[in-house]
């Protein structure tokens, strides 16, 4: 019945049911789930609406999916259901340079938007490391960040309006200038649990006239962390302020020869954009602070090629650790910037105690850490050690006033971690929102919330 | 009766639980600066939040600050300025305007294209629900995607969804230099000026075209109105950027530009304050969002309507964001009847125009909000779930179905 109705609504070409196809959509970058009942590839909001109505009739869960690059299992089906792939809704629908905005379909790949409008002198700021593959719809689902959100903010700061399909298959719209509750901000980051995005107006920024990229080498990760706090504390917010430890630097150099000093215990990759005078000021001020905190090297990228090479190393860091270990697990926590040294010490301590190798590559300016826990999944001891280390990292981040996810989302992975950050009352308030938007829990069920949390605590 | 002004979280929680149990309405009160932007609450116990103005956490090295929602915008500005930081809430009457008021009304200032909206700077909150439950969302970190962003959901809620107790913000480094550019526009230069300002580098922190507001806003009226542009930048950039801006304005046919340095901040404050100031009881101010490319045409059309009614018209166009603010006023004896027709005519042209301030309870008599949001039914469902007995600020808006 399900397949027949989907085929009738979308056409046979848009409904995938072969075991091979279903297998491709049974996992994302985090984990393996179960085979969905069907995969559909709609081409319009009307088709998305039709799919939702069918799913509702038949009680089938719906999982919206971009490119499946999510690291928390947000697009993984847990109990069959229909996976909605936006691979065919990937258009740049409208470009309105005069008003600095673009309307995009959810399946448009993040980087393609900036590439396609580069000649206009504008760009789309959110730049998750996955931006070559991840879609803007997926980025909206997780409120994705990236290195440059230090200066520009995360995805929520760049979404102007949304067109959504709700749990009944009805279309509704929200916009940042709407009166009333800020539903746009609520929907961004809701991981596909409150509705399905079918198009979005996003904000475009003017390309800066000047950009400087520098690399600073430090004798210890602590001194690099202190430098980060000092830079921000001095009132300097670069466009990006990224840190890599020795493990990552060696892996990156081995893979890309990006020009990182392999004898450094930590390096900072700093970018500043703006008018030439502003970039020059940032260069002088940040170099002074870096040296005051023990930097052994301060090197400017003197050409676009050098700049690209330094960034290529940073953005390819996760891939480069494949040279060290067959598997890695990326953790994502965020702490107040001044607590970075303590947090890094805690990561190091937990890794040592559990005898695993850790590489740190992260958005230091935001206090957003990404310890890469390296392991071999064929070794049960290492797998257990990674899980335990990850849990310690989450708990310590919360103890330091931080949170369990800075930019990857909750998905399946961190459902139980939510109780570390929030009390039952806090989670119940969120559950009530879920209950209003999707009382039957058809949309991406069993994500975000720990078991046992419901809206009933709020009933009066 | 007003409750104790020094109420703490527990007292507010208790008061709300009691109000819900007794089905008594509660009216939230703070600075009152934004009172003209929503309808009045009738027959309700008042919870006065003005004394809840403590700074709860401030770590300058983290660029984060947490305040009670009764804290005034000026109070926070002063504290942050001491550490060369700022929070661009851009509220009018900052001495009285509360942080809670800014968030409850989703006040959006002219610097939002550069620094973000107040909600973009909001990173966490604590709140009391209608049944007295104390809860929180977000935290004190600048990136946080753990769960739904309830803090931002409450922005624009006009106190109808919860009582916001605490707001956590990310602060920004204070720009080294602030300079206000004022220029009168010769006849026929307005459109060109508008285009030049939109493309200035460095980008203005804020920019307006002004028609009228002669007593409230700096600058001499020109044949085509006047402009005010705020530069906020690095000290090393100031003089070169000034030359560039003047050259760009010159290309638009504007021969002279007056600069304010020491007085820039005060002039900026007057621009923020002007829309909320009424010359008398016979005046009302509206603001309509618009695309920047449509803003001048909308302003002209609105001015034409007000002219038809033979009323005084003051206009303020936010060049970078597109907001059109218009104040209509007069002394006519029939103003009360006339303003009703004007309200209809304005909303025909600018359906999303909302009232900012008005004499004679304009916010209760006229179409206070303009076009209601497409997602209204979802907002009402949220209201029903979070405040099922409708005790929080009943009637101030459209969430409880009282106004359509």
Largest interface comes to: A-B, 88 and 81 residues
Listing every helix as H and every strand as E from the N terminus to the C terminus, the arrangement of chain B reads: HEEEEHEHHHEEHEEEHEEHEHEHEEHEHH
Chain-averaged pLDDT of chain A = 95
The domain count of chain A comes to 5
Which descriptor suits the 3D outline of chain A? globular
Q: Low-confidence segments of chain A, ≥5 residues, pLDDT <50?
A: none
β-strand percent of chain B reads 15-25%
In the CATH classification, which architecture of the largest domain in chain B applies? 2-Layer Sandwich
Classify the fold: give the CATH topology of the largest domain in chain B.
Answer: Uridine Diphospho-n-acetylenolpyruvylglucosamine Reductase, domain 3
| Class from helix and strand fractions of chain A | alpha+beta
Give the proportion of residues in helices of chain A: 25-40%
